[in-house]
C-alpha cells in the first residue's frame, strides 16, 4: 500500500468517525434503548461464536462414537443455542430499530427547528427544495444507518475478532493462513471507500437538485399551466432525474466492483484453507469435528469481512448525508438576541427612527438596497412609502422586522436600537399585512388565530367582522373551521387578503406594516375594509407601501423613494406641486389606475 493509498484510506475513516461522533449525542439521549440493544447484541454475538464449537462436539462425539443419547444431548444443546440466538437477534433488531426511529425523529425535530430559526439571509441563498431534501431523504437514510449499518459494523468487527481468536484456538497453523483472508476481503473497500463516499455525496446532491426543482415548479403550478409549459417542466425534471440516476449508476458500479473484488480475494483464501484442512484430516492430523469447527469459523470470519466491506460502503454513503446534516446544524442565525437584551417600554409608543441606514442584500452585494436612509415616523403617524419597483420600500419593512441588520447606521423604536432587542419581542409589537398573504393548509379559524393564539371567540368574531370576512367565512362548508387547502386555494385573492387583515386585527399590535393591504380586494368590499383599516390604524404607528391614490391621500405623510434613497416627502398636494418622480408616479400609477377602477366598477365588471 503506497503513501497515497494510506492517505486516501485515512480520510474516509476520519469522515466516518466524524459522522459517528455527531450521532453519538443523539444516541446517548436514549440510554435504556441503547443498553438493552447492547446486551442483546452481546448475547447474540456470543451465541453465534458458540455454534461452531457445539457443532464440532456433535460431530466428534455422537456422530463418530455412534452414541444416540450423546447425539440427542448435543442436538438439544445446539437447539438451545439456536433459540437463544433467535431471541437475542430479534431483540437486537427491535431495539436498534426503535433507537433509530427515536434518533431520527429527534434529529428531524432539531433540523426543523434550526430551519425555522435561521435568519432571512440564510433562506435567501438556500433553496427550500434542497433544505427539504436534508430534512427528509438525508435523515431517512440515517434511519437505515442506525438500524442496520452501525449494528452490522459492530457485529462484523466482533465476529471477525471472535472468529480469528477461535481459529487460533482450533488450529494455530491454519489460522496463520486464515489471516490472509480477512485483509484481502477488506482491502478493496478501504482503498475504494473515498471514491464511493464522493460518489454518494454527489448522488445526494443531485437528488436534492431534483427535489428543489419539483418544489419550485409545484409551488408555481398555475403559472406553469397558464404558460402551457408542462412539457418543458417535465423535460427539466427528467433531466434532473437523469443526472441523479447517472450519479447513482456510478456509485452502484463502484460498489459492485468493490464487493466482487472482496468476494474473489477473501473467498479464494477461504477455499485454500479448506483444501489444506482436508489434507490434514486425511492424514489424521485433525479430527472431522475440528475441521468442521475451523471451516465454520473461517466462513464466519470471511462472511463478516465481506459484510464489513458492504457496511463500510453504506457508512460512506451515510457520511455524505450526515455531513450535509451537520453542516446545517452548524449554521447559526446572524440575527439573534443579545445576551442581556433591552426591553421595549410598555406600552409601546411606536416612535420609529432610521438613522443613516445603508444595506445590501447578501445575494446582491453590488446593488445597494438602501443608501443613507433617514426617516422618522412619530407615534400614531401614518406614513406612505411610494416609489418604483426596486426603490427599497420592502427593504424598510424587512429591516424594521429585523429579518436583516443594516450594514451601517441604526434603527430605533422608542429610542431602543433594534440590535439591543430580542427579535421575538420586537416582532410581537408589529403586525404585518403583506400584498400576497401567506395562508397555511389549516382551517380559516387557525389561519386568523395565527395572529393571536390566545384570542377568545368574541375577539375572533370582532376581527372577522371588521375585516369584512364574516360573510364568506360563514358560507364555507364548515364555516370558519373549513380547511382552506394549500396556500388558501379555497379562497379568492380578495378573500385571502381579508383573512390576512383579520389576522392583523387579531394581533392588535402598536406598529402596523401594510403592503397595500387592499390591493387584492374588489370594488364592493374595498370601501368597508378601508374603514376597518382606518379604525385599526388610529392611534398606531403605520407604515404603508402604497400603490393607490386613496391610500396616499389618507396618509399623514408621503415618502417618495428611488434607488434606496428618499427623494421627496410631504403631502399629496405639495408633492404634486413640486413635480418630479411623485407627479409621474401619481399620474401613471395612482390617478390613471383610479380612473380605470371607477370605469370598470361603473360598467359592472368584476375588478378582482
The number of helices is: 20
Structural class: alpha/beta
**SSE string:** HHHHHHHHHHEEEHEEHEHHHHEHEHEEHH
Distance between the termini: 74 Å
Strand order of the largest sheet: 6-7-8-3-9-10
Number of strands: 10
Rounded to an integer in angstroms, the radius of gyration calculated over CA atoms is 35 Å
- Tell me which oligomeric state these chains represent: single chain
Which whole number gives the mean pLDDT? Answer: 78
Question: What's the helical proportion of residues?
Answer: 55-70%
Low-confidence stretches: 1-12, 592-608
Task: Write down the overall geometry.
Answer: elongated
Please, could you describe this protein's structure?
- It is a single chain.
- This protein has 608 residues and is of the alpha/beta class.
- Helices cover 67% and strands 10% of the residues.
- The protein has 20 helices and ten strands.
- The strands form two sheets. It has a six-stranded mixed β-sheet, sandwiched between helices.
- A hairpin with a 2-residue loop joins strand 9 (557-562) and strand 10 (565-570).
- Helix 3 (68-117) runs antiparallel to helix 5 (128-170) and helix 5 packs antiparallel against helix 6 (172-178).
- The longest helix is centred in the middle third of the chain and has 53 residues, at 230-282.
- The N and C termini lie far apart (74 Å).
